[in-house]
Design goal:
alpha+beta; 34% strand; 4 helices; 9 strands
């Protein structure tokens, strides 16, 4: 893969998190202090690399994750903003992504969970990071639950 970039508009603490994760091959950065975002304790994060729908360039960011069968799930919350996050729009345009969980790196296909699967994964993720409930209350859009199925 070509050189991956961290989006310029991310807060410095997020950029630092990604840099530590990459530099340590996941040893430092896999767990994130959720109190920084209103949660509790140390929570596992993965690195998701999408392809920019406009730029065509790979973009990377850390996301809280849960398990979804053989894969993982993430929440496209954008803190309850009215619009979907850019990374979600990117994977809608190109669902093939790169994922790093700790030191494990793999290709995956992203899809939006629906129905009973979505409800079960949403509850799992709220149990991991309770602020997702407030994020959903803050927006009229239905926050997507994204499953990352390994290829």
């Amino acid at each position: 893969m070509t050189e991956v970039r961290i989006a310029d508009n991310l807060p410095d603490w997020v950029k630092d998190h990604v840099q530590r994760y990459l530099a340590s091959d996941g040893a430092d950065g896999h767990y994130w202090d959720a109190s920084l975002g209103g949660g509790e304790g140390m929570i596992a994060t993965l690195l998701l690399t999408t392809t920019g729908r406009k730029s065509g360039k790979p973009l990377i960011l850390p996301l809280i994750y849960g398990r979804a069968g053989e894969g993982y799930c993430v929440i496209a919350s954008k803190g309850g903003a009215p619009a979907h996050p850019a990374w979600f729009l990117n994977l809608q345009a190109n669902p093939e992504v790169q994922v790093q969980v700790g030191a494990d790196k793999f290709r995956a296909r992203a899809r939006v969970a629906e129905g009973a699967e979505r409800e079960a994964l949403w509850q799992q993720m709220v149990d991991i990071y309770a602020p997702y409930t407030k994020y959903q209350q803050a927006t009229d859009r239905r926050i997507p639950v994204v499953v990352l199925d390994p290829l």
